[in-house]
Amino acid sequence: MELHINxxxxxxxxxxNFVLGFVxxxxxxxxxxxxxxxxxxDMQPEKSEMMKGMVFMVIGNILFAWVLAHNIxxxxxxxxxxxxxxxSQAITTAIFTWLGFYVPGExxxxxxxKNSWKLFAINTGYQLAxxxxxxxxxxxxx
Length: 142
Prior knowledge:
The chain is an all-alpha fold. It has one domain (7-140). Helices cover 77% and strands 0% of the residues. It has helices at residues 7-28, 30-37, 47-75, 86-112, 117-140. Helix 3 (47-75) crosses helix 5 (117-140).
């Protein structure tokens, strides 16, 4: 059995996720997120720091989309999966990945690092939205 991975879908997912992250953490929740993180709202990071952050974000987005594509492809071998619609498959993938891998880590950070529940909601909301976007692109383009 061979896994079918659409690398163009991964590339599009990486770009879409990068845009989503910019929108989520800048105009939508940027001020609230910065306040919850304790950042000075008047401070502007250096350009080299911003570029380094963007490079690592792109690398992370590539790994995220690539691994999720493999996970989705592996599930295609489960009997009955072909009967699921693309929408159901994308939503199921996103929600179960979010519940199993993202929410527990954020819960731990909220409790042990004494992060606020508002920060929890902003971060986990982004992670779920990101999973929905990336899973949808991968599922519909396979």
